Amino acid sequence: MGFSPSELKNKIAAKSLDRKFHYLFKKYKEFTLEPESYFVDTLMLCNQFRNTKGCIVECGVWRGGMSAGIAEILGNSRSYYLFDSFEGLPDAKEVDGPAALKWQSNKTSPNYFDNGKVDMSFAKKAMEMAGVNNYELIKGWFSESLPKFNPPDSIAILHLDGDWYESTMDCLTHLYPRVAVNGLIIIDDYYAWDGCTRAVHDYLSKNNLALRLHETTGGICYIKKTK
């Protein structure tokens, strides 16, 4: 059975978007630690929220590749805020789980990446490659930088990549109330580190929020803020 003209049009559009997302991964491959499937799935998810008004915030930037990719999808009419210590991750604690403690102690591992430490110039270059004019790189520990943050509008998409319990809790405490209704919260490390998982559930429980966690086919955990 053949497709109707509208169905065919939608399939062609979806295939074109898919090609664009894979192209963007190749463009920013040196600016992200995410594998291609995860990077592309994140862009697909963000594209579904393109009609939600507001700014874009990423906490845990590394070289800025993910923010740059999102910016290419959502356009130059928004404000983009990229938070990172640019000094690496803080010390993992017992609440973050044995895997986190082991990872951070093994400094010779090829996956250590200097504990996430990176020069801000990489993120600056990535955002310039995306053609974004209205962006800000905000350096500092989340506990110090986030309380001072006063965005001009609601947050349409909040991408959390803080790894540990305290970092994730700081992000949710200071930024969740600023997320727009029908806004998107991506929790990058929910399945990776115990501390991140605990922080998400502790925050939701503490604030009596009966929000559901969702998962994309590519394994990305996210929340849609409903009220």
Describe the model.
- The chain contains eight helices and seven strands, in the order H-H-E-H-E-H-H-E-H-E-H-E-H-E-E.
- The protein has 227 residues and is α/β, with parallel strands linked by helices.
- Strand 6 (214-215) and strand 7 form a beta hairpin.
- Helix 1 packs across helix 2, helix 2 (36-47) packs parallel to helix 3 (65-74) and helix 3 (65-74) packs parallel to helix 5 (120-129).
- The chain is globular.
- The termini are far apart.
Give a summary of the structure in a few sentences.
The protein is of the alpha/beta class and 227 residues long. It is built from eight helices and seven strands. Helix 1 packs across helix 2 (36-47) and helix 7 (165-175) runs parallel beside helix 8.
Strand coverage percent = 15-25%
Chain-averaged pLDDT: 93
Total helical elements = 8
How far from one another are the termini?
42 Å
